[in-house]
Amino acid sequence: MQNHEEMIDRLMQKAHEVLGKFSLSEEWMSAGEVSAALLTKKGTIYTGICIDVACGIGFCAEHAAIAEMLKARETQIEMVVAVSSAGLLPPCGRCREFMMLLDKANRDTKVVLPKNKIVTLSSLLPHNWLTEYSE
């Protein structure tokens, strides 16, 4: 098993491989400005890019990576990173809640923050829907 620093480097490399903004039907609509890579409990890495279009109907890079993971029938995320040209980004609130709702074990997902700080998903989202509203 790789140590955390090696895994962060591997996930960052994979995220950077798909990072790169490009225009869509209009110049102000784009994709790829943010990318994400996640490692599943089974050891598989999935990547995704964001899509920013009109009317707020795009989605985050984490959502795209999660969709790839779900196609392989996996739900447990060991570690996740999101990057832009400026560096590491924390997942937005919507992405945090989405990861939490996929599998209760994801509360222990390691989220990589700037300066390679690692925190658990539950520490970023202590009052999530599952713990507050479901039984």
Features of this protein?
alpha+beta; Cytidine Deaminase, domain 2; seven-stranded mixed β-sheet; 5 helices
Explain what you see.
The protein is α+β, with helices and mostly antiparallel strands. It has one domain (4-133): Cytidine Deaminase, domain 2. It has helices spanning 4-18, 61-71, 93-102, 121-124, 129-133; strands at residues 22-23, 30-40, 45-52, 77-84, 87-89, 110-113, 117-120. Strands 1, 2, 3, 4, 5, 6 and 7 form a 7-stranded mixed beta sheet that branches. 33% of the residues are buried. The model has no long low-confidence stretch (mean pLDDT 93).
Blueprint of the fold:
Layout: H1 4-18, E1 22-23, E2 30-40, E3 45-52, H2 61-71, E4 77-84, E5 87-89, H3 93-102, E6 110-113, E7 117-120, H4 121-124, H5 129-133
What is the level-2 CATH architecture name? Answer: 3-Layer(aba) Sandwich
* Count of individual domains: 1
End-to-end C-alpha gap: 35 Å
Query: Judging from the principal axes of the Cα atoms, what is the shape?
Result: globular
> What does the main sheet amount to?
7 strands, mixed
Spell out the helices and strands N to C.
HEEEHEEHEEHH
Average predicted local confidence, pLDDT: 93
**Which CATH class?**
Alpha Beta
Count the DSSP helices.
5
Estimate the helix proportion, in percent.
25-40%
Structural class: alpha+beta
